[in-house]
Amino acid sequence: MLKKWIPLLGATAVCALMSTPQAAKAEQLTLCWAAWDPANALVELSKDFTTKTGIDMKFEFVPWTSYADRFLNELNSRGKLCDLIIGDSQWVGGAAENGHYVKLNDFFAKEGISMDDFVPATVVGYSEWPKNTPNYWALPAMGDVVGWTYRKDWFERPEIQKEFKAKYGWDLAAPKTYDQLKQIAEFFQKRQIDGKTVYGASIYTERGSEGITMGVTNVLYDWGFMYENPKKPYDMQGYVNSADAVKGLEFYKSLYDCCTPPGASNVYMVEAADAFKSGQVAMQMNFAFTWPGLYKDEKVGGDRIGFFPNPAEKFHFAQLGGQGISVVSYSDKRDAALQYIKWFAQPDVQAKWWQLGGYSCLKAVVDAPGFKASQPYAPAFLESMAIVKDFWAEPSYAELLQAMQKRVHDYVVAGKGTAKEALDGLEKDWTEIFKEDGKI
Amino acid sequence: MTTSPNSYADKAAEVAARATPERLVVRVRALSDRAIAWLFIAPTIVLLLAINIFPLFWAIYLSFTNFRANRPNAEVKHVGLDNYTRVLNDPDIWVSMQTTAHFVFWTILLQTLIGFALAYLIDRKFRGHAFWTTLILIPMMLSPAVVGNFWRFLYEPQIGLFAYAVSFLTGIPTSEIQMLGSVNLAPWAIIIVDTWMWTPYVMLICLAGLRSIPDYIYEAAEVDRASNWRQFWSITVPMALPFIMLAVLFRGIENFKMFDMVNLLTGGGPGSTTEVASITLKRDAFEAWATGRSSAFAIVLFVAVFGLANIYVKALNRVKQR
Q1: Which residue ranges traverse the bilayer (chain B) (predicted)?
Q2: Is residue A212 very low, low, confident or very high in pLDDT (cuts 50, 70, 90)?
Q3: Which pLDDT band holds residue A64 (cuts at 50, 70, 90)?
Q4: What is the mean pLDDT of chain B?
Q5: CATH number of the domain bearing residue A86
Q6: Parallel, antiparallel, or unpaired: how do β-strands A191-193 and A196-202 relate?
Q7: Which member of A78, A98, A401 has the closest CB to residue B71?
């Protein structure tokens, strides 16, 4: 009996041995990104890619505080850890010029992926280098923008509405201007609500990475701050430190001084969301990616939360966040990585991406008739994405960012010097950096 | 006749030599003692060269170039002493050096005073002194990352125990006790945490010093009718001084390069109020990516610490020889 089975067992063993190299060949891609809610949504979404192609997805997610340090180090050392990377919008210049990302123009042309199908601001912000030229280094992956959330339930209380109207002469609602925003923040500062002391607003003040710069630029754009002379690139005198920009910075400091919770001297995305979730603040400045999570929150979500885009002043802008997805040029699995991008660009995948909590940049998704009604925060997101402006995306962006972090934190939080001195100093720092770069 | 331990060792060596196969004996005999010594220390030396000496010389080389780690394709140019000139003329760097000096001075002063006082008390050998010694030593056994994080919560104006305690004692509202957000208080907040964590370490070294003083010296002083005060200043302090100086040296070097705790507590803020030299260096090297300039800054710091430590060690040796 056993003798009968021996040839069969032998054949099975041979087949198993022969199939081993095949199994070893099965590919695995590593995707690098920040550790945050949308990353979890991407893990879920990517299961469809694995089902469809048989390519396993591995994820390397790093907290925001060390995201830039970790992955810029990886790229600069030409590491092979990441096959795909969702890099910050400001990295695109350096990554393109230093050869970290694969240029995607030929691939897009071959696969019929058109950048015209994506929201224009995200194409400029996440994909193009040099800006406003058809040179693409990433596919817009995660649209994001700084906006605001507010405690709708507090705003709607009759006694609060009555008191507010009596004090300021207008109906309490989501603010349209910065004056209104500050009045609301002052009104709620140190107010007792449900037996608890609450505060006006949570704004970005973080020093270590990019926090305070994102918050300050978000406000300064509206007051007239510009990075450079539109007619003469890198000419910053009178633009970075214009009288309007100085007023904008003074406003930001006044908002920090009057209306933020105690100890809010190092606040970025997580701390701001925590302040809102714990019921400390009436309003919160934060990137739109936090909105789905806040909307789902049992204590402050649902009917209790409202969303509004950046208020307007002389101009109406908002700080762009978000990222594009790129193929790392040092990866040995370039073809599989490109296959992922091709899959990710498909409209049905993008629609699912939005449903799971990611912010799609595909026009077919965001311009769809039901999009605005699909989520309570969708209108504010759409309106905000239409007015975005971004920080420098130059190869020297890291130095430009550090200079601004220092100058504005010294003024806004530490109270050193004046707004004019801070912006004059910033203009000087940036000019020096561009001189070293040979751009001036 | 007695047999000395050495003769036992010689005999054992002889037995071992006889038992060793002839071929191996020949091979080992071919190596000199010096060669065998080198054989043993070579792995350590190679490791040291690879992870200490090579990076040091590489940093020295980089400090004379315009190299930027985030521009791997850019041409690396030699810039002579430009990086050193920029570092030494940069007012921000001098401010960070002053911040470091303020931090080092106050932490060492407080840790030495409190550490010595605690060691003096523990040395009395009262009932339960072993328990109290263990309890006092706990903070230094914790990871700086853990300490930084939980002190950040303790300092929280709204929920922190520290703010609550100060408010309870002084009547100041907790919302006004902003240790980490205030320009005036933030440097002291860090000094308090470092002192809390590392005073036990200073205490331990001082305790070793106090326990090394022979009792007969005190007995002789008693015979000479020296007062307790006189004994303290003429016996205890001079004899424990080399240990105290050693503790100061260790803590001085450690605090000169303090990074983790400051980074976790304040990140150098508010503004640049608590930006010690190591934070500036990290920002320059890994955030602004000015690798050449930050290498020059690192060398300047290295020379400063090395020079000061050398002068200090000479003073320490002089005290020991007295």
Answers
A1: 36-61, 103-122, 129-151, 188-210, 231-253, 295-313
A2: very high
A3: confident
A4: 89
A5: 3.40.190.10
A6: antiparallel
A7: A98
- Residue A438's SS3 state is coil
Is there a cis peptide before residue A369, judged by omega within 30 degrees of 0? Answer: no
With a pLDDT cut of 90, the percent of chain A lying above it is 84
Tell me, yes or no, whether A175 and A157 share the same domain.
yes
In chain A, residues 202-261 whose CB comes closer than 8 Å to chain B: 206-208, 261
A417 plus A336 within the same structural domain = no
A337 and A405, same structural domain?
A: no
- pLDDT score of B30: 74
The pair phi, psi for residue A388, each rounded to 5°, is: -80, 155
Tell me what the mean pLDDT of segment B16-45 comes to: 77
Mean pLDDT is lowest, of A168-182, A339-353, B205-219, B308-322, for: B308-322
Q: Is residue A21 part of a domain?
A: no
Cβ-Cβ contacts under 8 Å, A263 against chain B: 155-158, 178, 180-181
Distance of CA A335 to the CA centre of its chain: 28
A contacts of B156 (beta carbons < 8 Å): 263
Same domain, A223 and A164: yes
User: Does residue A291 sit in the same domain as residue A367?
Assistant: no
Q: Considering chain A, what is the average pLDDT of its residues?
A: 92
Task: Provide the domain limits for residue A363.
Answer: 28-144+321-385
Instruction: Report the residue count for chain B.
Output: 322
Smallest Cβ distance to B70: which of A72, A406, A415? A72
Whether B176 sits inside 8 A of A78 (CB atoms) is: no
As given in the structure block, the two tokens for residue A279 are 């019921």
Q: In Å, how far is A381's CA from the nearest CA of chain B?
A: 31
Domain assignment present for A110: yes
Chain A residues in contact with B266 by the CB 8 A cut-off are: 207, 266
Ordered by where they begin, the domains of chain B are: 86-321 (1.10.3720.10)
Q: A288 near A153, Cβ under 8 Å? A: no
Query: Is residue B161 less than 8 Å (CB to CB) from chain A?
Result: no
- Work out how many domains chain A is built from and give that number: 2
User: In terms of C-beta distances under 8 Å and separation of at least 24 residues, what long-range contacts does A432-437 make, across chains too?
Assistant: A433/A396, A433/A399, A433/A400, A433/A403, A434/A234, A434/A394, A434/A396, A436/A396, A437/A394, A437/A395, A437/A396
Q: What is the ipTM of this complex?
A: 0.77
Structural domain includes residue A22: no
A413 at B interface, C-beta within 8 A: yes
pLDDT at B20: 65
* Minimal-distance CA residue of chain B relative to A280: B158
Instruction: Read off the pLDDT of each residue in B98-103 and give the average, rounded to a whole number.
Output: 96
